[in-house]
Amino acid sequence: MFPTLEMLTRAISDLGEVARWGPAVPLAGLFALALFQAIVLPRRLWAKGSWVLTVALCGVGAAALLRWQEQANNTAVADQRAEETAALQGLWSQWDALSRSLPAPLSEAPAAAFDTVDEALAALSAKVAEVETQIAALKTGAKDRSVDSETATKLADYLRQYGSYRAVVSCPPSDLEAYTYANQLANILRTAGWDANGPETTAYPPDATAMGISLYVRNPAAPDAAKILIDAFSRFNIPYQSAIAENDAIPDAATVELFVAKKP
Fold first, then answer.
1. Which residues contact 232 (CB under 8 A, 6 or more apart)?
2. d(CA 156, CA 167)
3. Residues 183/150, Cβ–Cβ less than 8 Å
4. Widest CA span of the chain, in angstroms?
5. What phi, psi does 257 have (nearest 5°)?
6. In terms of DSSP H, where are the helices of 105-175?
7. Tens-digit pLDDT profile for the chain (264 aa)?
8. Cis omega (within 30 of 0) on the bond before 172?
9. pTM > 0.90
10. Tell me, what DSSP letter sits at residue 162?
11. How far apart are CA 162 and CA 224, in angstroms?
12. What is the strand order of the sheet 195-201 is part of?
């Protein structure tokens, strides 16, 4: 028969109770032995009474001393746990101050509790995880967009096999990061043998922000260049907007525009 969870819980509770009363067991045994000797050994009645009273007083004193020691130990343990909880709450406050200096987290953190050490540890662990997420988001946002040299070479080789297409690379005005990224894309297209112009500055769409490249054509059903670029970007893990947008400002149906928006 295998022990159930209820049986294990009861056994653990019984062991805890035995451990708590452990120091009193040998004391009770000594008290019983001394009381037995005080009753049996002396021959005179008054001696028996004196020894029994002495043993009783000693037993009461020892029990009181044991009780006092137990209370002192409990108080010391409670004070230690209170100090540990306060220390963990102090660490949580430091991490919380750091969290407030970083970009706001995407989700609201659970309410922190510090009534016990376990609750304080859980709150601190949750706060550390939240700060790690904020730091990761900050690093992602702080990194300029670019294509590494190896990927740029592979991308150019991949596009070259499809022949030459006309493309225009654009970006918002006065955005150095977007301009640098757009210039790199234009150079990759020219290396692939494409007729690539730019980077040109354009204000559309107004106040748009996106990590990925947006593709615009005059007629979505016409140019193969946009589909080739989407396949290439997907193959080499270059962020892009999956939808191909229509723009009447593009001069002919064979031209595709690559728009690098402002980074979020």
1. 155, 158, 159, 238
2. 14
3. no
4. 128
5. -110, 135
6. 117-142, 149-160
7. 444 445 544 544 554 444 455 555 565 665 565 555 556 556 666 665 666 667 667 767 767 777 777 787 778 877 788 888 888 888 888 888 877 777 676 667 677 887 887 888 888 888 888 888 777 766 665 678 999 999 999 999 999 999 999 999 999 988 889 999 999 999 999 999 999 998 998 876 666 788 889 888 887 665 688 899 999 999 999 998 877 787 777 777 778 999 999 887
8. no
9. no
10. T
11. 10
12. 195-201, 166-171, 256-260, 213-217, 240-246
Residues in the chain: 264
- From residue 45, alpha-carbon distances to 31, 59, 99 in Å are 20, 21, 80
Domains of the chain by residue range: 5-139, 149-260
Tokens of 72: 């002192």
Q: What 8-state DSSP symbol labels residue 221?
A: T
Instruction: Name the token pair of 232.
Output: 């290439």
